[in-house]
Amino acid sequence: MARRKCPSCGKVDEILVIHDKDSVIKKCPNCGYVYITYRAAMKPS
Fold first, then answer.
1. Burial of 35 (0-12, 13-18, 19+ CB in 10 A)
2. What highest taxon heads this organism's lineage (predicted)?
3. φ and ψ at residue 3, rounded to 5 degrees
């Protein structure tokens, strides 16, 4: 997993990855800031 400094809360932490149906959401586990949201080409197994 990647560590990243959150632009919202300023903490450095692991990025929380959430798989929701065909979407992938990467966000800060502390404040909930969303880094990126994208649709996966294939469903995760």
1. middle
2. Archaea
3. -105, 140
